[in-house]
Amino acid sequence: MLYVAYNDQKLPCFIADHNVISDMHGGQAIYHVTSGHRNPLNYSITEESLYEYFHANPRVSNGGRIVKNKRVLLFKKYTHFHLYMILRYKIALETLHVMSVFGGSFSKNYNKLNRGYNFLMLVAKLYAPYVFFKG
Question: In its UniProt record, which GO terms are filed under biological process (predicted)?
Answer without folding.
Answer: long-chain fatty-acyl-CoA metabolic process; suberin biosynthetic process
